[in-house]
Amino acid sequence: MADSTSLTKVRDIKQRYQPGVLKYAQMGYWDGDYEPKDSDILALFRVTPQEGVDPIEAAAAVAGESSTATWTVVWTDRLTACEAYRGKAYRVEPVPNQPGQYFCFVAYDLDLFEEGSIANLAASIIGNVFSFKPLKACRLEDMRLPVAYVKTFRGPPTGIVVERERLDKFGRPLLGATVKPKLGLSGKNYGRVVYEALKGGLDFTKDDENINSQPFMHWRDRFLYGMEAVNRASADSGEVKGHYLNITAGTMEEMYKRAEFARELGSVIIMVDLVIGWTAIQSIANWARDNDMIVHMHRAGHGTYTRQKNHGVSFRVIAKWLRLAGVDHLHAGTAVGKLEGDPLTVQGYYNVCRETKNAIDLPRGLFFDQDWAGIRKVMPVASGGIHAGQMHQLIDLFGDDVVLQFGGGTIGHPMGIRAGATANRVALEAMVLARNEGRDIRSEGPEILRDAANWCQPLRAALDTWGDVTFEYASTDTSDFVPTAVAV
Amino acid sequence: MRVTQGAFSFLPDLTDRQVSAQIEYCLRQGWAVSVEFTDDPHPRNTYWEMWGMPMFDLRDAAGVMAEVRACREANSQAYVRLSAFDSTRGWETVRLSFLVQRPSDEPGFRLERLEAQGRTVRYAVRPYAVDRPAGRRYGPASAARGEAR
Asked: How far, in Å, CA of A269 to CA of A253, rounded?
C-alpha cells in the first residue's frame, strides 16, 4: 500500500490499483502542474476542510467526487482512459482574510459532459460533493465554460437586442412593476392594477413568483383580464406593452397549456420561476423560440443556496447557467434595494448577463475570462425595494440595459398607481436625458429629480414619500480578493 | 392623447438645443444618426419613411439638426424621430430613439375587440388617422393638400 501521508499521485500501477483506500490526491485528482486546456470546463470552489484535512487533499476530493471517483480504489477504472476523465484540481490558495477557507481550481475534460444539458452539468459539478463529510462547507464560486461547450446551447430565445427591436424601445432602461398584494386579488381587480400601472407609463407589469392558479384567482382569469389591461394601455399610449404572465405550474403539460393561452391572447412575454428546474427551463426556452415569446425568469428560491459565501452556489454561476439554458430577463439584484447585494458583486452578475466577453474582474467576483461566443444577451432585472428617488444611483450602477421594477414604489404612491408609474417614468427619462447631456448624475441626481418634480406633481409626491428610504445593511456575499498594486 | 413612443415622451417636448445635446451624445458614442417620419404611429409600424440614409459619416451635430429641420418643414404634420444606430459587434441595432416632432393634434388609437371562443378576445389597435389615406392624415393643411406630398 502507498504511504498514507503522501499527497502525490501514486505512479506505480500495481500500488495504485491495489484494493483499499487511497487519498484522492494519491488517486490522481490533484495535479499542481496541470495546464488547463482551452476546451476544459473550469470550476472554482471555496472549500472549508474539516480540522486536520489538508487543503490539497480537500481539493482533490472535490475534483474526484465531481468527476469519476468513489471512496475506494476500483479496478474498473482500468477499462477506461481514466486519466482523461479525472477532474484535476490544479491550484489551491487560501481565501484572503477568511481563515480555514481555500479557493480550489478544478479542470474537467469537455467529454465528461453531455451537450446542451445544464441538468447534466449540475449533476456533475454540484451533485455529490457538497455533502462530502471531510468538508465543513463548500461553495461553487465561478465557472469558465469553454466556447466549445457554450456552442451546444441555444441561449436566450430573444435577447436584449431583439427584445428592444420588438418593443421599439431604445436608449433607456425599461420600467416594470409587480402587482401587489402578491396574493388574494381577484382576476378583475388584478387587471385594474395592470391597467393603471401601464397606462401611467410603465412598459411591463409582472405576476409575482407565487401567483399561479389559486382559489382566489384561476390562471385563465388572470390572463384574460391582464391582456385586456395590456391592450387598453397600449391603445392609450401608442406603445408596445406587456404583462409577464407567470406560467409556472406543477407539470410541463400544464405549463405548455398556459404558455399557449398566453400566445393565443397576444402576450409578448411569459414568465417562469427558477424553482421549475433546469430541464423545464430549457424546454420552455425551446417553446419560446418557436413562438417568438420573451421569457422572464424570476429567481425564486436562489437565496437558499447563493447567499452565504461559505456554502452553496454563487449567483454568478446560476446566471451563467441560465444564459446558456435560455432566458431573456433575469432578476439579478438592485444593490440599493431591500434584497441582498453588494454593488460590485451585483455588477458582476449584470456583466455575466450582458457582455459578449467577461474579463477576469476580481472585485466583481469574476475569476475567469469567459467568451460567450455570440450567444444572445440576457436583460437583467432590478427589483425589490427600489423607488424613484434612487433613479440616479440605479442608472449609474446598471446603465440602460436593465428592467427597473418598482412594485411598492408604483402601487404604493399616495396619488394612486397611475401617478406612481408616471413618477417613475418621468424620473427615468429626466435622468437619462441629463446623463446624455453630460451631467454627472451620481452627484447631481437629486437636483435633477427635484427639477423634474417642479413640473411633475406625481414625482414630487413620490420623492416626498420615499426620498429618504434606504436599505443600508452589510452584505453577506462580497468578493474576497487581495487588490493587486498597480504600478503608476 | 399623446403618443409616448421614444425615450423622452414623458418630458415636455425637447427644444432644439436639447435635441442637439442628444445628437452630440450619440456622435460621441460613435453611433450613426438618422431621421425618419411617419403618419402611421401604430406601435408596430416598424418602417417609418427614411429622411435620407443614416448619416454614417456626419460627425457634426449642426449638420444633423439641419436635416431634422428640413424633415420637419417638409412634413409639418408628421411624427418625426431621431434614431442612433450602433454597428458594434453584438449590438448592430438602434441604441437611442426619440421623437423630435409630433402632429399638432393626436387623435390616438381605437382598440377593437373581436369576441372569440369562451371569453377570449382578439385585440387590434388602430390609429384613427389611418382611416384617411397617407399624406392626408394629420392637420387641416395635410387634409386639404391631397394624397401626394
From this structure: 19
